[in-house]
Prior knowledge:
elongated; alpha/beta
Amino acid sequence: MKTFSRPNFYTDLALENCEALQGESETPDGIEVTVEEDEAQGIAVTWVKITNDAGAEAMGKPIGNYITLESPRMKEADPAVHESISKIIARKLGNLHPLQKDASILVVGLGNWQVTPDALGPQVCERMLVTRHLQEAMPRELQGRVRSVSALRPGVMGLTGIETAEIILGVVRHIKPDLIIAVDALAARKTSRVNATIQISDTGINPGAGLGNKRTPINHETVGVPVIAVGVPTVVDAATLVNDTMDTLFHALSAAASENDALINMLNDMENEERYALIKEILDPETGNMFVTPKEVDAVIGRLAQIIASALNIALHPGITARDVNRYLN
Amino acid sequence: MKTFSRPNFYTDLALENCEALQGESETPDGIEVTVEEDEAQGIAVTWVKITNDAGAEAMGKPIGNYITLESPRMKEADPAVHESISKIIARKLGNLHPLQKDASILVVGLGNWQVTPDALGPQVCERMLVTRHLQEAMPRELQGRVRSVSALRPGVMGLTGIETAEIILGVVRHIKPDLIIAVDALAARKTSRVNATIQISDTGINPGAGLGNKRTPINHETVGVPVIAVGVPTVVDAATLVNDTMDTLFHALSAAASENDALINMLNDMENEERYALIKEILDPETGNMFVTPKEVDAVIGRLAQIIASALNIALHPGITARDVNRYLN
Amino acid sequence: MKTFSRPNFYTDLALENCEALQGESETPDGIEVTVEEDEAQGIAVTWVKITNDAGAEAMGKPIGNYITLESPRMKEADPAVHESISKIIARKLGNLHPLQKDASILVVGLGNWQVTPDALGPQVCERMLVTRHLQEAMPRELQGRVRSVSALRPGVMGLTGIETAEIILGVVRHIKPDLIIAVDALAARKTSRVNATIQISDTGINPGAGLGNKRTPINHETVGVPVIAVGVPTVVDAATLVNDTMDTLFHALSAAASENDALINMLNDMENEERYALIKEILDPETGNMFVTPKEVDAVIGRLAQIIASALNIALHPGITARDVNRYLN
Amino acid sequence: MKTFSRPNFYTDLALENCEALQGESETPDGIEVTVEEDEAQGIAVTWVKITNDAGAEAMGKPIGNYITLESPRMKEADPAVHESISKIIARKLGNLHPLQKDASILVVGLGNWQVTPDALGPQVCERMLVTRHLQEAMPRELQGRVRSVSALRPGVMGLTGIETAEIILGVVRHIKPDLIIAVDALAARKTSRVNATIQISDTGINPGAGLGNKRTPINHETVGVPVIAVGVPTVVDAATLVNDTMDTLFHALSAAASENDALINMLNDMENEERYALIKEILDPETGNMFVTPKEVDAVIGRLAQIIASALNIALHPGITARDVNRYLN
Lengths: 330, 330, 330, 330
């Protein structure tokens, strides 16, 4: 029995694009994948490099670097695990984009603070040690130990009436940072990756993509400053869930199917997009606005925001410790 | 091609049990269904009566009355629609359980205030005009116009370590109300019903059933006082969504299937429970803890709590208007 | 016995500056005060005009118009009163700054959303019907009936590291509105005015002044666009409270005092600023960071935000009703 | 010049009652005060014992033990300081009321979760490791290492219509704990103590006293089970602030006053209660409902709840570490 070829649906995770390609006979040129695993901690780190246009086309993502940390434990309430993950992220940020001592950084928290799974970016901003305004009045013990950091929560177009990229551009032109770090909620294919994966890339970000709204991208080209993106998949869309589950179900039962199964054959013969569209149509129209999310989403988003904010505070203010950061916050 | 018989999964809505039975050749004895439709408002009201044990068995629900209001507009931000719905609920409550002038009522808000789709009950409590403590110090203009109302948010067992029924029983023995009205979030089969349906019944409630945790029921028998339950389905579980969508997909494509489709036949031959269990197993283990919910869930739960609290305030304090209620709240 | 002359402390309310001047022998030139009272509703409206530099100096406020609405009932949960007040505000906004049909307006919600009494501005933003992004995809029934409105919550410098005026300037240069309406929490002298007074002025705003942090003002001169300010006093500072209470106490007891009361004479002889500074010094150092606020501040700020947002929605989108606004607001 | 005798106003802190007595010529019989100071940490611990009726009358508090921890650093965001304080509290709880290995404990979080400074108790409950419901299904690694702990947030009478003591009594009769630990927000005299002091006592608690509402006390006598109270002063009332500040001001200026100062003499001759009542009357009627609170109250209450919950989790579940607690929480 023929199996479904891996569908080509949207994912924000380069790692999932890679997995989709792995079924193919030959891996396309222009993609390099390196896997590190920290077994002690159960944290898997994968570095995907897209090096040329062929790779970019195969992956459906721009040329650049995509680093993924995976650990189901990041959503648990374990500060020790959080600290390990924060340190790995801080180190990877340093690898991806080494910073001058006097660099100034703007952290942008994308997303809608009113919708919990989309509130990751805004919540990270609220935990940043911002220092740009303290240049002259810096507490003596911090002098020379912190970089100039500012933080912006631009909101989403539905709340502001303004494209997120416009707000960022307006502010960037005014305050002229050396680097933007944009934090956002992403969309994943697999529910197992929801709230269990952090992706860091140097190719910028598409605000709202995680919840299905495509907007002007925010990257070096559009805002004139390098843009590092840090994201976590926090939702899976309902149609993807159904399609993937059906796919797996048919695989699991494939021994029972025969060459003559007309219905299965028909479903197989459909393009993935076609089948996905059919499922989307079948789902109650209401379901289009629905997503799949864990019960304890409020607590989990808070933990993830804490992990990422700690990582950024460590990476951007190298002269001070996590404990210092806590003391100067708020 | 044989089609799937309607599956027999759990739903809190008697209306959905009825729908499941409608495919059957003859409607079981002991079930009476009356439909009213308020076309002007687009609000459908259905009254399901289970009159004997045969009906109870066929429905999988206790003997009693189940009134359902359906309107997709209750989740919108339209105060005029909310007011119409509140008035219908207030009237139906009066039909279901007429109250003595001096009756005392305990409103119990079941569910977990930390989990938005489960916070309906606690949020209703916070909007109740409670008066039990004012017996002696009642503002003169309210005297003789309000009943003795108290409100309890017992929490969920995971937060308290105590069975919800135990807390209620302890308090009920102490304050001896004449009636309990228990408000809870429910589980539905159809995503179109989520946040668009209110069920009122005189058979009590199973705390936590909406999110999959069965506990001691709260009804006349267990607490010694009549219990009216008011609930809204706020989630659909992921496996139900997949199973139902697959079912509909196969129906839609049934012309293409043949008698020889071994896989389809196998899926058909499975008991519904068996197939559901298979899907549940296939879904990522993570997905077991996930549910399907609309993006704007925070705002919608707030509106539904407002609708129900207004209905209860009108029904329980008949001598005062909605405007009075607002003035004495808080 | 000599009485204290009215102290000259900071207040955001022009009305309170006027009251301070009323004790003086002759009212300075350049100040015009008109009082309207809507007795039925218990809403007092006072229009203060500062017409020249003498008036500006006497008042410590820029030349321009200051309209104040006072009603203790705005903090109560009475939707009918809220609606009356919203309509008066909408009308006064129209008097103060008539708008072209195709004018575009940026609403700026100043303040810190994490600190309840300072969250008024951000909460107003969340209740605005924003339309600027819908220009092309406007629902047909809204076409020609709404103006282009956008809404920005810039945050406070302690959270962003960026001066609020810089963020606004960056965005304004990009989106070029015809008018800015800036909403902010203010500081008052009298606790009776807290959450019971709304001031509308055409002279712009000083972000953070309400909580003691002076920043770059936001007005026509600094941002290049007319700026209407809408504010509510939400706190009183502790030293002001003590000073005023002592003052009143001495007045109340003045019959008992004699010309020889050395202590009283000494306190009288102090400049107001000097006495205020002394009290500030005497108060625990901790008290410097404290403010006086009502218990139910969360609920009250929500109501005030609703009143102001309704007023702005009515004033800016004249072709639609309050009910329409609710329907299009998510 | 005669100075004001120390006023006799209400404070929940036994330590402040002691301070008021220290001006007196001889310390009353029946009061023992022991001070420990941990200078390294800057945490002062004072143990006040009231040993007989004379002491109880002098103090205006029941016979029993009152342990106070003071540190301005508990309101800062420094996890290391929080941990030290949690450990001291846990130790003192053990001294005050040694527990059997199989004791069962009910933690009661008093106060109104809608009013931030009164939400301490409810917030502690949400951070407790509750285990009473796990007796049979206890994760193997926790067996024998945790006590049976439950947690109740009874709410306040204004929200429930039920006296808090009634709810607790109802539940206690049903679940029969060996000990109640009641957590509540308190009222202090000095603003410097607000959010900087934790009092532990074995004499029970008066719900609502911190915000001026006297209710049935919750103690061994009223509920039939020993009651340990843990509290933090989170507000100071406005009239107390004014009275104390005036008092200090007159002291500071006393050199300038003469025997002939009629007004001062009159104020001195007033009973403290009389003067306090006069100030209360002079303050705007609105101010009666107001309290003095720091700006960052939301963040601070969260930190204090975390400190106390950690202390209780350590004290009640001695076989597990802080890290374990975090892992099993939610």
